[in-house]
Amino acid sequence: MNLEKFTDRAKGFLQAAQTITIRMNHQRISPEHIAKALLEDNEGMAAGLIAKSGGDAARAAAGIDALLAKVPAVSGSGAQQTPGLDNDAVRLLDQAEQVASKAGDGYVTVERLLLAMVLAPTTSVGKALADAGLKADALNSAINDLRGGRAADTASSEDRYEALKKFARDLTEVAREGKLDPVIGRDEEIRRTIQILARRTKNNPVLIGEPGVGKTAIAEGLALRITNGDVPDSLKDRRLLSLDMGALIAGAKYRGEFEERLKGVLDDVKAAEGEIILFIDEMHTLVGAGKGEGAMDASNLLKPALARGELHCIGATTLDEYRKHVEKDPALEAASRIRMEVESKPEEIETLDRRIIQMKIEESALSKETDAASKDRLATLRAELANQEQQSAGLTQKWKAEKDKIHAEAKIKEELDAARSALDQAQRAGDLARAGELSYGTIPGLEKQLADAEAAAGNAMLREEVTADDIAAVVSKWTGIPVDRMLAGEREKLLAMESTIARQVIGQDQAVRAVSTAVRRSRAGLQDPNRPLGSFLFLGPTGVGKTELTKALARFLFDDDNAMVRI
User: Fold this and answer.
1) N or C: which end of the chain has fewer CB within 10 A?
2) In this structure, what CATH number is given to the domain that contains residue 330?
3) What is the DSSP letter of 214?
4) How far apart are the first and last CA of the chain?
5) Is the pLDDT of residue 477 over 80?
6) Do 210 and 307 belong to one domain?
7) Could you tell me if 24 and 71 are in contact, meaning their C-beta atoms sit under 8 angstroms apart?
8) Residue 226 in contact with residue 276, Cβ under 8 Å?
9) Are residues 354 and 332 in the same domain?
10) Residue 108 domain boundaries
11) Are residues 339 and 366 in the same domain?
């Protein structure tokens, strides 16, 4: 028996067994004391395994207590101050070491101790566990499920078991239980988050903002949308889990403990095969977390998973911390690019829903008032609320119907592409019968279905094609430049430069023409591109329009009157 081959938690239970032995005034540590320590565990690993194996943990604990009650207690000068292991306990630990070695483990874990007890049915502990309905095969199966195929190759291997249950909170489950409040005022940010997550690569958004602006609320809003099905198909049935960095770091005082816990989280996320989105609040704490002598920080554990696409996450941090920690790391910063495109509720429905929530809050407050004015306002409010809810229900129904039509249309297009590909293969293979069937039967039928579906779309709230207007609207939101200026071609703008500026500057036609000609010459590439766009010297008395012409030029070129420096 080599205690160095036992995990830290297994050693901890042996120490707990010694404490129980001293407390009960027993002379030696027996398998019964070790079993009692396992069953009294606050995390309940042993009790949970017994329950999963079809046994009764309470009955097992009662049986162990009955056995310990028969052990004689010795107190006074004859009592052992530091009791050691008895022969049965030594045999138990040897058996556990053999079981672990046979299973391919480098260390003896807590569950192997429990399995070794069950594998000795002739001992008193084995009989007590058998009487509680615990069988070796069932327990071994439960252990394999708990481990998820992972071997115990480090002294802190147990930290990797069910890591997500220990260190993360399932926001989608909380949303299903109705414990999340509606999110108001962050629709655009939630949409942008969904847009990034829906990408195939570079799909890990980072929410940046000062404390209290609603970064966590965006994650909760996303959980609500996933629960309601208000997300693209690629995000449906996903689970959004919030990683608790405090719990992950707390108590990890020995080298490697923190890394082991985080590896367990990443392994669970990887095993879910893309079904889990991880929300990491205060993500800057990952940079440097767990770093110590001979250890790496958490961000280095995340980078390979991010690069391979195994980790789908949302980060949240402040602007200062982002610049200080995340932005300096190209591997982390590159995984946080933003893309905008979403299949979500139209804006008019979102506006109605927000108004309904506000009215319900007002209704709840007014219902507690007793004065006549409040009662009159309450009656009016309820009538207005009923009307708003009716409008919202109608628009939502229309939106869902149109979304279903678009999905059906996309499916027809996929079938049509597959049929055309099959036709090409049939023609190359000389299969004329198959080619004729596709050419005159399948393909025309699908084309007719597609035409009917497109004709039925009509004045839809949702569109499948991305137009120039859509692109301009997205870029406008990013840059703050008005949409109409985004859509205007530069050539047309430059040709009409005089008339545009003349609407703002009156009576200075000669100066306007001179400035416009210089700008067009520069834009046409007729002068050195490394020189300034133009250098103008406006002369004249006060009030003739020198400053106004400068403002007009700034507005024309940069869409902002204030895009100038006054000296």
Assistant:
1) C
2) 3.40.50.300
3) S
4) 84
5) no
6) yes
7) yes
8) no
9) no
10) 3-157
11) no
Token pair 């249309």 in the structure block, residue: 409
Domain boundary, last residue among 329, 344, 359: 344
- Dihedral class, residue 254 (left if φ above 0, else alpha if ψ from -120 to 50, else beta): beta
Tokens linked to 99 = 């079981």
Among 407, 405, 399, residue whose Cα is nearest residue 350: 399
Extract the runs of DSSP E, i.e. beta strands, from 474-520: none
pLDDT tens per residue, range 2-41:
777 888 888 888 888 888 888 888 888 888 888 888 888 7
CA-CA distance, 90 to 452, in Å (whole number)?
79
Place of tokens 């079993």: 35
Mean pLDDT of 113-136: 86
Signed CA dihedral, 33, 36, 38, 42: sign only: negative
CATH number at residue 77: 1.10.1780.10
pLDDT tens digits for 365-397? 888 888 888 888 888 888 888 888 887 777 777
- Would you say residue 482 lies in a domain? no
Q: By the 8 A CB rule, do 239 and 275 touch?
A: yes
8 Å CB contact between 124 and 36:
no
- Among 157, 189, 218, give the residue marking a domain's end: 157
* Residue 62 CB partners (closer than 8 Å, separation 6+): none
Counting other chains too, the contacts that 441-450 makes at CB distance below 8 Å and 24 or more residues apart are 443/416, 443/419, 446/412, 446/415, 446/416, 446/419, 447/416, 449/412, 450/409, 450/412, 450/413, 450/416
Same domain, 232 and 117: no
State the Cα–Cα distance between residues 520 and 497, nearest whole angstrom. Answer: 9
Instruction: Write down the pLDDT at residue 459.
Output: 47
DSSP label at residue 280: E
Based on the domain organization, do 282 and 327 belong to the same domain?
Answer: yes
Whether the pLDDT of residue 166 is over 50: the answer is yes
Are 201 and 336 found together in one domain? Answer: yes
In a domain, 260, yes or no: yes
Q: Is residue 467 part of a domain?
A: no
> What is the H or E stretch that residue 208 is in?
strand 206-208
How many C-beta neighbours within 10 Å does residue 494 have?
A: 17
* Residue from 32, 28, 125, 126 nearest 85 by CA: 28
Nearest C-alpha neighbor of 33 from the set 71, 79, 82, 74: 71
In a domain, 408, yes or no: yes
- Check: pTM over 0.70? Answer yes or no: no
CB 220 within 8 A of CB 258: no
Burial 279-318 (b: 16+ CB within 10 A, else e): bbbbbbbbbebbeeeeeebbbbbbbebbeeebbbbbbbbb
The residues near 86 (Cβ < 8 Å, ≥ 6 apart) are: 28, 29, 30
Distance from C-alpha of 172 to C-alpha of 113, rounded to nearest angstrom: 36
Residues in the chain: 567
Q: Are residues 49 and 111 in the same domain?
A: yes
Q: Tell me, yes or no, whether 62 and 141 share the same domain.
A: yes
